[in-house]
Amino acid sequence: MADRSGTAPAMDVEAEVVIVGAGIAGLATALALRRVGVGMSPGGVLVLERHAELRSAGAALTIFPNGWFALHALGVAHKLISRYDAFETSRVTTLETGATQVFRFAGRKSSGDDVKVRPMHRKALLEALAEELPPGTIRFSSRVVSIDSEGSPQIAVLRLDDGTVIRSKVLIGCDGVHSVVAQWLGMSEPASSGRSAVRGLSVFPDGHGLKKELRQFLSEGLRAGMVPISDTDVYRFLVNNTISAGKTCSTFDCSPFNTAALHN
Predict the structure, then answer these.
(1) Alpha helices in the chain (DSSP H)
(2) Closest by alpha carbon to 39, among 17, 11, 62, 54?
(3) 29 with 36: CB under 8 angstroms?
(4) Are the beta carbons of 20 and 26 closer than 8 angstroms?
(5) Cα dihedral 122, 127, 132, 136 in deg (nearest 10)
(6) I need a surface site. Which of 62, 65, 190, 249 has the fewest CB within 10 A?
């Protein structure tokens, strides 16, 4: 099998656990399994990623306190806390009236200063998780084209586009909206949330001078916002209600910053 810098040739592979998708969910799952002693033998846990490298798309995300508890348990929180500052306030302005409300993120006083709301680059989180996995755990350029059980309910057989056949006792799907694992399991198609979002990262080489707080601007069916990630990088987003919602969103319900833990 290949390490994180290459691709394995076509072959027959046996694995205890196969995880499809090397996003945040896939890498966190692989690391959690190893932390509890599952798949410690060589090739025990195998993560398949169809891209040639870790995907940096997604710009940034915000980790809330319970997400930091998860990252502490995985053993990677210390890598990120030292790089990203916490912020404690969110300033929300309604464009029609000009009224601004200020909300504070209280955090957990008993949990130490590190368990607070912190924005970060998505790629930094992916790299922190991947670095904790042994070489050979992630198999890049590995697109799953079919899954079957060969008549046995105790095995999953995955066929990749390069001809490789992988047999696994456990198969976990972390491969996103168009999940091949979900299709094989017969799960229903994803339902629309009624919202679309555009996210991006602006870089100011000479510094942006913004306060360390989440700024949001609300209008009918729209929500825009920005938050500094570092002294030079600012994460920005725009959320649009594409269909009529059944209820009015509360201040944080419809925000892309409503990240209770880890998302992919």
Answers:
(1) 24-35, 65-74, 77-81, 122-131, 180-184
(2) 17
(3) no
(4) yes
(5) 120
(6) 190
Average pLDDT score over the chain = 84
Given a cut of 60, whether residue 108 has pLDDT beyond it is no
Q: Are 217 and 95 in contact (CB under 8 A)?
A: yes
Q: Are 236 and 201 in contact (CB under 8 A)?
A: yes
Question: For the segment 227-238, what is each residue's pLDDT rounded down to a tens digit?
Answer: 999 999 999 999
Does residue 262 have a pLDDT over 70? no
Q: Which pLDDT belongs to residue 1?
A: 43
DSSP 5: T
CA-based radius of gyration for the chain: 21
The pLDDT value recorded for residue 259 is 34
Quote the Cα angle for 193-196-198, to 5°. Answer: 145
Q: How many angstroms separate the Cα of 135 from the Cα of each of 1, 97, 165?
A: 9, 55, 20
Q: What is the DSSP string of 245-259?
A: -SS---TTTT-TT--
